[in-house]
Design goal:
Oligomer: heterotrimer
CATH architecture of one domain in chain B: Alpha-Beta Complex
Structural class of chain B: alpha/beta
Number of domains of chain A: 3
Number of strands of chain B: 13
Order of helices and strands of chain A: EHEEEEEEEEHEEHEEEEHHHHHHHHHHHH
Strand content of chain B: 5-15%
Radius of gyration of chain B: 21 Å
CATH superfamily of one domain in chain B: Amidase signature (AS) domain
Number of helices of chain B: 15
Number of helices of chain A: 15
CATH class of one domain in chain B: Alpha Beta
Shape of chain B: globular
Order of helices and strands of chain B: HHEEHEEEHEHEEHEHHEHHHHEHEEHH
Largest interface: B-C, 79 and 58 residues
Largest sheet of chain A: 8 strands, mixed
Strand content of chain A: 15-25%
Chains: A alpha+beta, B alpha/beta, C mainly alpha
CATH topology of one domain in chain B: Amidase signature (AS) enzymes
Chain lengths: ~475, ~475, ~100
């Protein structure tokens, strides 16, 4: 067995109103070349103007990954020729990325592993190419969309670790609210470096470029481990090269060798005057970074005593987790709140294929509902009915209970009056009461419920009936 | 004398008083443009459809001007004098063009330049050589060659130019007119076809200093499309215009002067100009600068400008725009387009620029050039703590004859090859004005001042202009 | 630093997407030697390596990042007006195979 070492370069499109260096719309459209500005086609005389929001979002992710942030924002040019690159260079960050030397903790089967982040930097996307039999067509809508590229150190040692990192990173992006990070929409793309070695020294680095889904990252890693193992076992030497994954076969194939490596001739972009990154700016951004998935999971387990399973279900979607947290913050018991959220609420959402944002329910309502059950105003069975009404109408539970006339009679005197009335009306049965015969007491409870239309608190009714029946024959 | 040959203020007054109309001025300007085109070749495009504008209180309203062909003009062919853009019609206006439109100025033509701005002779444009109106056997220098020639010839009162090393000031000096490159960022570069972004400036060529003040006042301003543009609400060149510069302090560089002593007539002219400066009440002092650093200006200018240029012009591939040449693959399209689209000089410069930027060379070549740049700028900035301006000879010669010089880099350590690039290195405002005649040709001096002291630089030049009393060619020919 | 030969000059040129002609090499080599000679002199300036390379002419204190508002007015027609050939508003090129991106 050889030691596998994996490094990842993950590109993620950031959401914003406008592109990173031009004022064109950053958003999806079917119409080609309609979301473009002069900059996006590289016309002579254009100048890039950096988007404040894109910079702030990039800094936010950087800080969420515990990276060191720069003292100023500058960009660099990466020079190369390709039909999808209209300026002949990509504006990116090399000299001072938005983040360097960070880390992200991941949970690999219950074990926490720290993944070191080499850097994360803001750059622009290229145009997209559509290929036909004899020609290709260029659509510049994607040109200039902000991309955040995060580069890990080569510190992952299995496919599982790599995929766990990717899932964790995606959740971090989504938790930070900077992108939906969906690979099915082409928002996330990956380059993977895989090297095998018998010793502690790293083996030859093989890079597989531009993989479009996490599933394919897994396939590429599997294939490379197998391919490189075979070479090494046969006494061969793995060539340092760049490869590409064939999506259909799951095999990688040669793209270019190290000797053909492109010299990108990076230099500082002279058109973007440096803007200082102030402590106030960073503090303001820091305030908007939410507690991340893994930290929340730990908190739910350690502080709230939830099971790992429940904690995982809760943190899967940030909005669900936020909702749950607000229930708890409003004073609800965490376990009971968890039951409602993971049970009824998520059940409803899944069944209707909607998200928590689509329903009018508020966290404080869950808290109230739990209180109504706790103080025996309604039964748990009734609570479910109230919940269903609540999620559809957005009415507060108290209001629903009143409207539906569900309020239990918990007043001792009121129940007592009904109990006495029932005993009087059924004098014969009362007289023949035998505490051994449970069916008898059920009959009386039934009568009380009938008279109160089910509103009498069952436990109280039972208690009172027992007492009065015992006295009845004395 | 035609109103077209007068100062902007005089023309404006005549327009206001109805002594001449905007239409007449434009017709006269177009007529002259066609008449002299064969002789001096200053235009790529003459806008025969140029329309008159209403006369407002803006001094530039209704008056024709010309723009260098590397300024993006919506709906008007803009070639940067290169085959690769021979058919390129921009869909947007450069900020300076837009501002002049708003001022009511009328663009009557686009001027020939050295291809893509990367030359200093005025001989490398794709539509042919620009000739010096003072003597058509001599060059104008460049790269704003056509702009200098058409202003000197009296076709327009002013023209826009651009300046990366000396591209406004050198030809202005050789053509006996005023060339002004303001502080970096004072005028937006949006719409200027980039040569070397960190050195590029938009400026103007005029027949007198005050006209330059009017033009720059009209086109300056912070621009949301240019992150390197600067706030200039307190820089008002016309409002603060004065020829009273008593007490201002100038310095000249000893090493440049020593070199100039080899050419007696130019030296005498420069010394005479220094006397004029003193006569204006200014102090003039000699300062010495380490010769190794001065010698570094030329190579570091070449290194930085070629490096930035090779990247800036990577957009010229014939794909989304430009003069595409066919090929079987996209790479072939790009290679054929660029091989045929660029002249030899340009391709040479790009290879050098690319070599300088290569990973293994960057430290020794590109970064060392950028280090020299800092040494120069720091030294000059330090001197500007004591002085209001640096006065230099604009050149150590009059305009050369064709064939006497070319754009091949010189092997000699020439102090005068790129001395004006000091202004580009530091973004300093820098103005060139005629200082006399040698061998029937104009010679010039240059004033360069601290950043954002554009007003002071203009005023110092205006005071000297008054003392020198130079007669421009168009006025001379009228007489 | 790399050595300059005709082969690698042509190679550099091709990486910049153009070809050099045979008769152009002589001037190029001469010019190249010149700039290297000049730059060599710079490298010998005492303490040069300690100087911070300068990209911007001076520190711009007015610079601001752009507010995130979409304001482009470029129409699809204008975007592709200067393209050599288009199909369905997209810019046509010969088929792209493999490579970067």
């Amino acid at each position: 067995m050889y030691k596998v070492t994996i490094g990842l370069e993950v590109h993620c499109e950031l959401e914003s109103n406008s592109k990173v260096f031009s004022p064109a719309i950053n958003g999806y459209t079917e119409a080609p070349n309609s979301h473009v500005a002069y900059q996006d086609l590289g016309f002579p005389g254009i100048l890039p103007v950096a988007n404040e929001e894109a910079v702030k979002r990039a800094l936010k992710v950087s800080m969420a990954m515990n990276c060191k942030t720069p003292d100023e924002i500058i960009f660099d040019r990466k020079n190369y020729y390709y039909p999808d690159l209209p300026k002949g260079y990509q504006i990116t960050q090399m000299t001072k990325p938005v983040g360097i030397n960070g880390y992200v903790d991941i949970d690999v089967n219950g074990e926490i592993k720290r993944v070191d982040i080499h850097d994360t930097h803001l750059e622009e996307d290229t145009a997209s190419l559509d290929h036909y039999d004899t020609y290709s067509l260029i659509d510049y809508n994607r040109s200039g969309i902000p991309l955040l590229e995060t580069v890990t150190e080569p510190c992952l040692h299995s496919k599982e670790e790599a995929l766990t990192f990717l899932e964790t990173y995606r959740s971090l992006i989504v938790y930070c609210g900077v992108s939906e990070a969906r690979s099915d929409k082409g928002q996330m793309r990956c380059d993977v470096n895989v090297s095998l070695s018998e010793t502690e020294e790293l083996g030859s680095k093989v890079e597989i470029k531009n993989i479009n889904s996490f599933y394919n990252v897994g396939r590429a890693i599997d294939f490379e481990i197998e391919r490189q193992t075979e070479i090494l076992q046969n006494g061969g030497v793995v060539e340092q090269e760049t490869r590409r994954l064939d999506d259909e076969t799951g095999e990688t194939f040669h793209m270019r060798s190290k000797v053909d490596a492109v010299d990108y001739k990076y230099f500082i972009e002279p058109n973007i005057a440096p803007t200082p990154v102030t402590d106030e700016m960073l503090e303001e951004i820091r305030k908007t970074i939410p507690m991340l998935q893994l930290d929340r999971k730990r908190k739910y387990m350690d502080e709230y005593g939830l099971s790992e399973y429940d904690a995982e279900v809760l943190v899967k979607v940030k909005e669900d987790s936020d909702f749950f947290q607000e229930c708890v913050d409003a004073g609800a018991d965490p376990k009971k709140a968890c039951n409602w959220v993971t049970g009824m609420l998520m059940g409803y959402l899944n069944e209707n294929e909607i998200t928590i944002k689509d329903v009018p329910i508020k966290p404080v309502m869950i808290k109230e509902l739990i209180d109504l059950v706790d103080n025996k105003t309604i039964s748990s069975k009734q609570a479910k009915e109230v919940f269903e009404c609540m999620i559809e109408t957005g009415k507060e539970p108290n209001v629903i209970v009143k409207e539906k006339g569900m309020m239990q009679i918990t007043d001792d005197n009121a129940i007592h009056d009904v109990v006495m009335e029932v005993l009087k009306e059924n004098d014969e049965q009362a007289r023949s009461y035998n505490p051994e015969k449970t069916r008898m007491i059920d009959f009386f409870v039934g009568q009380v419920m009938k008279k109160t239309r089910g509103k009498a608190n069952p436990a109280k009714t039972m208690e009172m009936l027992r007492e009065e029946l015992a006295n009845y024959n004395k | 004398m035609s109103y077209l040959d007068k100062s902007l203020e005089e023309i404006h007054k005549a327009l206001k008083e109805g002594k001449v109309t905007s239409k007449e001025l434009i017709e006269e300007s177009l007529k002259r443009a066609h008449e002299y085109q064969e002789e001096i070749n200053s235009f790529v495009t003459i806008c025969d459809d140029a329309k008159e504008e209403d006369i407002t209180d803006n001094v530039l309203s209704g008056i024709p001007y010309a723009a260098k062909d590397n300024l993006s003009t919506k709906g008007v062919l803009t070639t940067a004098s290169s085959n690769i853009l021979a058919d390129y019609v921009p869909v947007f206006d450069a900020t300076c063009i837009k501002k002049l439109k708003e001022a009511g100025a009328v663009m009557m033509g686009k001027t020939v330049m050295d291809e893509l701005g990367m030359g200093g002779t005025g001989t490398t444009g794709h539509t042919g050589v620009v000739k010096n109106p003072w003597d058509v056997t001599r060059m104008t220098a460049g790269s704003s060659a056509g702009s200098a020639a058409c202003v000197a010839k009296g076709i327009v009162p002013y023209a826009l130019g651009t300046d990366t090393g000396d591209s406004i000031r050198k030809p202005a000096g050789y053509c006996g007119i005023v060339g002004f490159k303001p502080t970096y960022g004072l005028v937006s570069r949006w719409g200027l076809f980039a040569f070397a972004s960190s050195l590029d400036h938009v400026g103007c060529l005029t027949r007198n200093v005050k006209d330059a003040a009017y033009v720059i006042d009209a086109i300056k301003g912070i621009d949301e499309n240019d992150m390197t543009s600067i706030n200039s609400f307190n820089i008002k060149l016309v409002d603060n215009y004065t020829t009273n510069v008593k007490g201002k302090k100038l310095f000249y560089i000893k090493e440049l002067n020593d070199e100039l002593k080899n050419s007696k007539e130019y030296y005498d002219n420069f010394m005479k100009t220094l006397d004029y400066a003193k006569a204006c009440g200014m102090e003039v002092t000699e300062e010495s600068i380490d010769e190794d650093i001065l010698k570094g200006i030329y190579p570091s200018y070449m290194a930085i400008s070629c490096a930035e240029a090779t990247s800036n012009n990577s957009n010229l591939t014939g794909i989304p725009f430009g003069n595409r040449k066919e090929g079987r693959t996209p790479d072939e399209v790009m290679i054929n387009t660029r091989t045929e689209g660029f002249s030899e000089l340009i391709r040479r410069r790009f290879v050098i620029g690319s070599f300088i930027l290569q990973k293994e060379n960057q430290e020794k070549l590109f970064k060392n050039a950028q280090r020299i740049r800092r040494l120069i700028v720091d030294k000059i900035t330090k001197l500007f703590e004591k002085y209001d301006g640096l006065i230099m000879p604009n050149s150590d010669s009059i305009a050369p004859h064709f064939g006497e010089t070319n754009d091949v880099m010189s092997d000699k350590y020439l102090l005068f090859a790129e001395n004006l690039a000091i202004g580009n290195f530091g973004g300093f405002p820098s103005i060139t004005i005629p200082s006399g005649i040698v061998d029937d040709m104009p010679v010039a001096i240059n004033i360069t001042g601290p950043i954002k002291s554009d007003s002071e630089v203009i005023n110092i030049a205006a005071a000297l202009e008054e003392k020198i009393g130079f007669v421009p060619l168009n006025v001379k020919e009228e007489k | 630093m790399q050595k300059i030969t005709r082969e690698n000059i042509q190679d550099y040129a091709l990486k910049l997407m153009f070809k050099m002609k045979d008769e152009e090499f002589e001037t190029f080599e001469k010019e190249f030697e010149t700039i290297l000679k000049h730059m060599n002199l710079i490298g010998q300036i005492d303490g040069i390596e300690k100087v911070e390379p300068m990209t911007f002419p001076f520190k711009n204190t007015d610079v601001k990042l752009r507010k995130d508002v979409a304001t482009s007015t470029l129409t699809t027609d204008d975007a592709v007006k200067n393209a050599h050939e288009t199909i369905y508003d997209e810019v046509k090129v010969p088929k792209v195979v493999g490579g970067e991106s």
